[in-house]
Structures are given as C-alpha cells and as structure tokens.
Design goal:
Number of helices: 8
Structural class: mainly alpha
Radius of gyration: 19 Å
Shape: globular
Helix content: over 70%
Distance between the termini: 54 Å
Strand content: under 5%
Number of strands: 0
Largest sheet: none
Length: 223
C-alpha cells in the first residue's frame, strides 16, 4: 500500500510539473515547437554527421557507424513502443480520455497517439545523441547534440503529448541502447577515438542554421 501511495505521489508531481511547463505558451513558440519537434526537419543535420564520418573514417567503419545508429534508434523506439507502452498504458496528457486533457495546451489539434510512456522521441533523440558523444568525444559537438535532444524533449511537453516522466524514461532507454550498440560497434569495427576530427563542427553549423530557419519561420508566421 505504501508503494502505491509513493507511486501516486510521483505521478501527481509529474503532472504538476507538466502543467506548469505546458501552460507557458505563445503563438510564436506554438509554431517553433511544432516545427522543431518534426522528424524531417533534422535530416540536414543527420547528413552533416554522416559527412563527418565519411571524411574521418574508413568507409567500412562509416558503414558500421550507420548500422549502429540505425540499431540504436530501432532498439530505443521498439523498446518503448512495443515492449513497454502496451503494458504500462499511461495516457498522453492531451488524450481526450485523460482527466487533465481540458487543461492541456495543444497545437494544431495534435494529440499524438493514445499512450505516451515512455517517450519514443526522447529515446530516439537521446539515443542518437549519446551514440555521437561516445563516438567522437568532442566537447562542443556533445554540448550541441545534447542541447538539441533536451529541447526536443521540452517541445514534447510544450505540445502537450508527454509528461516529464515519459521523457526521463525515454532518455534512459536511449542511453542504454546507445551504450550497448557502441560497445558492440567497437568490437566489430576496431574503431579508436581520434584526438583530432576534421570537419567536426559541420553538424553544429547545419543544426544551428536549421534552428535559425525555424526561428525565422515562426517569426514570419506570427506577423
């Protein structure tokens, strides 16, 4: 009984934090967060990461890297969507069956799927971010890629489709998936961390330009 009480308290705190964050909104950030949370908007940055790999690694190592990233995202995504969500059955905040749905700010009538624990967005983005961190071990790329993943998680609260607890669980799943696949990648590829990595700032530049583009788009849309 005590464990159930503690669990209920944790859920209540999670809900209060969600509502505190979700109620802070504006037309500008409605456009920004909706665009930022999209999957395809970040393809140029992913291409820039691939470019850095091609310029620094043997093509076979690059191939193993790409397979590794695909495995990280697949494992993270399916662990959340297939192995956990159907059993936990935690409704998304914006789901109309959720008692708090009337208090949730949503954008463009987007409510996501039915269940949200854990967050696959968090699992996928942090899975990629942790794998890139393990792979390159470069400070500014790590800071940028972690910030990108963190803001992605914030956007999911802003859009009303995930509780903070969903995102924390997804982040943990992404970390575990990235670590396991990275250790396997090292054994298969024989890759060793490089002290100097030419063109390492390409993903930061491309990602920064993407964010600038989203900011300009959001500003234009609210005029």
């Amino acid at each position: 009984m005590m464990l159930l009480d503690i669990l209920n308290q944790v859920v209540d705190i999670d809900t209060d934090i969600f509502l505190s964050i979700n109620r802070m909104h504006s037309p500008f950030f409605d456009y920004f967060m909706s665009a930022y949370s999209g999957k395809w908007i970040w393809v140029p940055m992913y291409a820039a990461i691939w470019y850095v790999m091609l310029r620094n690694f043997h093509w076979k190592v690059t191939l193993f890297c790409m397979i590794g990233l695909a495995l990280v995202i697949t494992i993270a995504d399916q662990t959340g969507a297939t192995l956990i969500r159907p059993y936990v059955e935690r409704l998304r905040p914006a789901n109309l069956e959720n008692p708090i749905s009337d208090m949730v700010h949503i954008v463009n009538s987007y409510r996501g799927g039915r269940y949200g624990f854990p967050s696959c967005h968090a699992a996928n983005t942090f899975g990629l971010a942790f794998f890139i961190w393990f792979l390159f071990r470069k400070r500014w790329l790590t800071v940028f890629i972690m910030g990108w993943a963190l803001l992605t998680c914030y956007s999911r609260i802003y859009l009303g489709v995930h509780f903070p607890g969903d995102l924390l669980a997804g982040t943990f799943i992404g970390l575990i998936a990235a670590y396991i696949v990275y250790r396997l990648f090292l054994k298969v590829s024989g890759h060793k961390t490089m002290e100097k990595v030419p063109h390492i700032y390409a993903p930061i530049l491309v990602g920064g330009l993407t964010i600038l583009g989203i900011l300009i788009y959001s500003a234009v849309m609210v005029l």
